[in-house]
Specification:
With 424 residues, the protein is α/β, with parallel strands linked by helices. Helices cover 44% and strands 16% of the residues. The structure holds nicotinamide-adenine-dinucleotide, L-histidinol and zinc ion.
Length: 424
């Protein structure tokens, strides 16, 4: 990995720029075809990119059960324990709305209601992601969403991985489609003969999925852009090079476009991590993917002070940040832009990917400056409520009418003044 001295005040904004023109062109074509041709286009693109002809797009109930039965018992138990941890964490996020009592019997309120139908994208092109089933579905269930749809690309044999089916089974999700990529996002957004449209699409995916979500936003809600994975490690001389290197590679192996960055105050650590990354890459089963990520989007920066290092991390706003320093909790307090923060050497990033309970669907490409990880709020909406009694109306109608006339909106003024006298 290339080692660079960090210039003061440098911005490390992620250089992915939301994909290139060619990828965007492909995505727009896929979306237009799915909108115009429905299932037929979904089938064509599935054959083209996933390598099988999907006679049935929906996964049969028996297939979900068979998948669950086929999964190794220990893995089934581990998935269930992870699901319990994720549920516990997300249950803390539920809200009930509120009522604000005013004088004279009037009141204002906020009512929170779950979305009716959501489409949850579970990636699956080059790896299987049962964990993403848990991360998408559980917050939706905690929020009380009625229709939960999973869509995920199948392998060349036309089947979803047993882990994905088992996770769906554990959570009781029955509407599952074997469709991936931009065609899945188009189907969820516009609806096809087989897949009814949803109100919101959530979930992570590769650059094609991320771009497609961005394109359909507006016709349908989306959670965020959760694209190719990223990790930044903020470390000082107390960190161990082999551990830092392993954690960087944990995200590099996701995608050739994944981004892995070390910012450190220790020149010695920087040198050792660069050597370790090379060493560990050589024996990694997904070496080809991880090496491309490290070469294209990997970097080590040496900062003069911890304050400079923290500024650099905040400018990057990474999806994941590990803080492996002295007084790591205090250092982490100073981070304002990161999707997920992992404190100390025992909170290796995969702890959060699979098990701790926090969500692994997190904003990428520096969007953690303004976006949050997937959470229960993503699956609800809020209605405001006004109840004015006659007395409150009488006291305030002249003020409201004056404000309306100031805006030149006579109709508003007349509407609020139209109450209050005897009607026949
Ligand atoms: N940010 C997060 O929260 C988060 C979480 C988990 C995974 N991820 C990311 O999810 C991604 C998973 O990627 P993946 O590829 O394994 O699975 P994926 O399901 O995201 O993508 C597979 C689909 O991409 C489409 N595709 C592949 N090549 C194409 C091409 N040349 N043109 C058009 N479409 C094409 C196909 O339709 C295929 O079904 C990785 O980038 C990983 O880093 C992110
Ligand atoms: N690190 C990914 C989010 O960027 C999530 C994940 C799923 N499985 C393994 N990792
Ligand atoms: Zn991961």
């Amino acid at each position: 990995m290339k080692i660079t001295k960090l210039a003061k005040g440098i911005s490390l904004k992620r250089p992915l720029d939301g994909g290139n023109e060619e990828q965007l062109k492909v995505v727009r074509q896929v979306l237009a075809d799915v909108r115009a041709q429905g299932d037929a286009a979904v089938r064509t693109y599935t054959e083209k990119w996933d390598g099988f002809v999907p006679n049935e797009l929906r996964v049969a109930k028996e297939e979900i059960e068979a998948g669950a039965n086929a999964l190794d018992d220990q893995l089934y138990t581990d998935l269930k324990e992870a699901a319990d941890n994720i549920r516990l964490y997300h249950e803390q996020q539920t809200r009930t709305g509120y009522r604000l009592d005013l004088a004279n019997g009037s009141w204002l309120g906020q009512r929170i209601t779950a979305l009716d139908a959501v489409g949850l994208y579970v990636p699956g092109g080059t790896a299987a992601y049962p964990s993403s089933v848990l991360m998408n579905v559980i917050p939706a269930q905690v929020a009380g969403v009625k229709r939960i749809v999973i869509t995920s690309p199948a392998g060349r044999d036309g089947h979803l991985p047993v882990g994905v089916l088992a996770a769906a089974h554990i959570l009781g999700v029955e509407e599952v489609y074997k469709v991936g990529g931009a065609q899945a996002i188009g189907a969820l957004a516009y609806g096809t003969e087989t897949i009814a449209a949803v109100d919101k699409i959530t979930g992570p995916g590769n650059i094609f999925v991320a771009l497609a979500k961005r394109e359909v936003f507006g016709e349908v809600a989306i959670d965020m852009i959760a694209g190719p994975s990223e990790i930044a490690v903020l470390a000082d001389e107390t960190a161990f090079a082999d551990e830092v290197a392993a954690d960087l590679l944990s995200q590099a192996e996701h995608d050739k476009l994944a981004c892995v960055i070390l910012v450190t105050t220790s020149e010695e650590l920087a040198q050792k991590v660069a050597i370790e990354v090379e060493k560990q890459l050589a024996s990694l089963p997904r070496e080809e993917v991880a090496r491309a990520s490290v070469e294209n989007f990997g970097a080590i920066y040496i900062a003069e002070t911890m304050a400079d290092a923290i500024d650099a991390i905040n400018s990057l706003a990474p999806e994941h940040l590990e803080v492996v320093t002295k007084n790591a909790e205090a250092v982490a307090e100073q981070i304002s832009h990161a999707g997920g923060i992992f404190i100390g050497r025992y909170s290796s990033e995969p702890v959060g990917d699979y098990f701790a309970g926090t969500n692994h669907v997190l904003p990428t490409n520096s969007t953690a400056r303004f976006a949050s990880g997937l959470n229960v709020d993503d699956f609800v909406k809020k209605s405001s409520i006004v109840y004015y009694s006659e007395k409150t109306w009488a006291e305030n109608a002249p003020k409201i009418a004056r404000l309306a006339r100031m805006e030149g909106l006579e109709g508003h003024a007349r509407a609020v003044e139209s109450r209050g006298w005897e009607k026949e």
